[in-house]
UniProtKB/TrEMBL annotation, chains A, B:
UniProt entry keywords in alphabetical sequence: Manganese
CDD domains attached to this UniProt entry: DRE_TIM_HOA_like (cd07944)
Organism of this sequence: Marinicrinis lubricantis
Domain Pyruvate carboxyltransferase residue range list: 6-259
The name this protein goes by in its record: Aldolase catalytic domain-containing protein
Residue ranges of the TM segments: none
Keyword Transferase included in the entry's annotation: no
Length: 320, 320
């Protein structure tokens, strides 16, 4: 029976690292792992497995952006029930960095891609599958993909060895009905695959969309503790463990992590619902303009920001 | 057609006053009224119409707690399209304070009550209806009412002159399925009444529950700007005007109000999702213990707070 219940994948370190440039202490990551394990959380995504050779600014980021197996073994000396996962991006991962699973701390490798890159993503999935890993394929920015392109991508994915295919609401722009629409489409075109959901909270719908997905049979639910994730953040892990109908989930260890580590973290770094992220979510746009605004002196100039995004004449084309 | 579309009732001043003891400037309230009117919001609940004679601590609260018609005429010299509403509580209102509607700034009087007090609420509704007002009856704390008591209450309400009956999620403890359950029950037992919803955001479900209600034909949607309301606050007005399918609603004037007034207000007063409110929501309890915690030096002691509410032995009975 328990195999039919949805699993929680906590991506506090991976998606939260987009907030603080992966400035997480080893102590925090170790405590988070133990806390998530005690809470019954199924997977912890402990970072990216991209290659520093393929990314600019690599030397400024914390180690969680370029996971190294020796380092991981030091931080997490003992694997518990919670499995470990890492995300890779198309074109930023060097497949030679990926050890066979038998020699690695990682259980699951997730490949993030846009629908247009699905062929490249499938190639990576095949390699990781071959090396013994569980795999997922996370299709980003679904709200901006044309229907025929998505259909084609899902038809390609159907025959690849991936275990789970994710519905990713990158812009936090999808409401319940739209999530339901994607679930039905994915179910129809991928009858042989499990589904996952990764929601963002720009319109305060991340938890609600994730609960709906769980009801509709989506098997993998992404979340992060205290909602920590890029811009408006993710579905909150504490809300999932408190509300999913599975006796193994416990809220108390997650509260303990928030109390000991994340209240202070939230004082130093900003994430979660705020007006610029709500605006980009509503307009179905990438949050990058809102993130830039929040980092500027104009961070609370909401009306100007809204005008820039909605009135074309405010931003004329550059002169020659 | 537009009569079939849901209406927004903004209760920033009334429910938000529970955050700051109604410490709103006249300038803010006037600007809010003009902004809501420009945004197309249908009603603005401008406070309570309780009697200071019937409440302790009355002299410390701002004027919005005990609305006086002469004062209202000064603050809002010109009525625009947005109607004005006030809330009264059972046992705290002196019916002699209520002018006939023709002499009053108010259009709508809402009666808040628990299911057990519905007979008293109906008596008040009859008086206000008689004096020419639109009326609503807001049944609070629905998650704590026994089924037979609620059925009986709704059967009594069916034959009274009230225009709208509200589903109130006082503790922010209801999820989408539970809201849907109440909507179906209310529809069945009150086929002749319009319905309303007032949601709290303890589990980040206020907007989602309100959207769902709108889809299911609920006609009156409560919200507050920037979510300002007691404890975890309400469904955000900015999310409703940005997402409801009604061309008259405009987001920009609401952004303007937030930018000019509410960012600073939020720096001085706390409301919205946080962990203690999430805990009381999850446990289906009144937020008063969480509000007390947030006002104490232990405001971030989440684990102790959770233990107190869930482990009976932590709080032994008082000795004689």
């Amino acid at each position: 029976m328990s195999d039919n219940l949805p699993k929680i994948l906590d991506c506090t370190i991976r998606d939260g690292g987009l907030v603080n440039n992966w400035d997480f202490s080893e102590e925090f990551v170790r405590n988070l792992y133990e806390g998530l394990n005690e809470a019954g959380v199924d997977y912890m995504e402990i970072g990216y497995k991209n290659s520093p050779k393929l990314l600019k600014g690599a030397d400024e980021a914390g180690p969680w952006r370029f996971l190294n197996d020796d380092f991981l073994k030091k931080v997490i000396p003992q694997k518990l029930n919670t499995k470990l996962s890492a995300l890779v991006d198309i074109g930023r991962v060097d497949e030679n960095d990926i050890l066979p699973r038998s020699e690695s701390m990682l259980d699951l490798i997730r490949v993030a891609c846009y629908a247009r890159d699905v062929d490249k993503a499938i190639r990576l999935v095949e390699i990781f599958h071959e090396r013994g890993y569980e795999t997922t394929l996370n299709i980003m920015a679904l709200s901006n993909v044309m229907e025929n392109e998505l259909t084609e991508a899902l038809e390609q994915i159907k025959d690849c060895p991936v275990d789970v295919v994710y519905i990713v609401d990158s812009f936090g722009s999808l409401n319940n009905s739209e999530i339901e629409y994607f679930i039905e489409k994915f179910k129809k075109l991928l009858p042989n695959k499990k589904l996952g959901i990764h929601a963002h909270n720009n319109m305060q719908l991340a938890f609600s969309n994730t609960l709906l997905a769980a009801e509709k049979g989506v098997a993998y639910l992404d979340s992060s503790v205290y909602g920590m994730g890029r811009a408006a953040g993710n579905c909150n892990t504490e809300l999932l463990v408190a509300n999913l109908k599975n006796p193994k989930y416990k809220l108390r260890p997650v509260l303990d992590i928030i109390e000991r580590f994340m209240v202070e973290m939230r004082e130093n770094w900003e994430w979660g619902y705020n007006i610029p992220y709500m605006i980009t979510g509503t307009l179905d746009e990438h949050p990058r303009t809102a993130m830039a605004l929040r980092g500027s002196a104009d961070k609370d100039k909401y009306v100007d920001f809204y005008d820039q995004l909605t009135l074309p004449e405010v931003s004329p084309q550059a002169k020659k």
